[in-house]
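BUG-352 | component: ligand-complex export | severity: low

The export step for iron/sulfur cluster jobs runs without errors, but we want the raw record kept on the ticket for reference. Input record follows.
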Amino acid sequence: MSADPRPASPPASPGEPLLRVEGLTKHFPVLRGFLRRHVGTVRAVDDVSFTLGRKKTLAVVGESGCGKTTAGRALLRLVEPDKGQVWFRGKDLPTLGAVELQQMRRHMQIIFQDPFSSLNPRHTIGQIVGRPLVLHGVAASMSEAEDRVRDLLARVGLQPKYISRYPHEFSGGQRQRIGIARAIALHPEFVVCDEAVSALDVSVRAQVLNLLMDLQEEFGLSYVFVTHDLSVVRHIADDVVVMYLGQIVERAPRDSLFARPSHPYTQALLSAAPEPDPAKRRKRIVLSGDVPSPMNPPSGCRFHTRCPLAFARCSVDTPAQHGVADGHTVACHLYEGRTEPIDLASAARAAG
Ligand code: SF4
């Protein structure tokens, strides 16, 4: 491929994460009626903190509506966060002005879930992939960008001769490869993959995941991988955060999370995930009730309305994150002074 168009990163101290997120918060007002009266607030993301290591993949996992997609987009300021800090390349992204943010965009990109709606149907693949190169001054014109676009198409497994074709001429998997080519065109440092393989068939999903992992290796990329699919997490993640109703309930290195899921919600989530190895299959934990509305989340621990282990304090006090293993924390009162995972299935049986 052509030379790296990415300007050198500012020097980083050894061990410093690529991205540090502190207290990220995004609420959406709910407006109703002709006069657009304010009738409530959706607390989509509430006080979320994590770090992303260099050349690492952090999976943000949870059920639909847990705030993971909003969190991913707020990192890039595709939605404006209300509060919090996002430290990247020595800058706090939410405080950047329009010009500085535009300059920073070349270092951070996104791959969307639906490869069809994220590609302009009236533009050729050459225009779609080449546009960021022209916008950021890497190429003076679209025709100058063409050679690089051909390289990028080849790199993501597409024929360079497709450069003049339109999105509708491609399959779902090919369209996602086009989205990936566009995302890596400027050699970003980190990419938010927003349910990037969820819309794909299982066989194509594995190919695209492998492509993303190869690109990570080749370009030193870091990913924030937003997904509801635990098999994807197992395949691609180094670290995992589990979200429930806009908050992080558990944070862990991948192997630690799968070996000793600790939060009752994480245990229930993992128990519902398909497990090919019969020896590792977990007893299914079925939670009662639906996920409450993020417009009016429960007080205290937001999971208390569905938690089989909830006790009086849970509806009053918001639990802090308690460390249970190296890099592994859990937001649950039961882990005050305790590190061993609670066996939710048997504890619930004993209680009930
Ligand atoms: Fe369950 Fe209470 Fe722990 Fe929340 S704090 S997960 S309600 S036991």
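Assignee comment: Attached the raw record above. Residues 261-351 form one domain.
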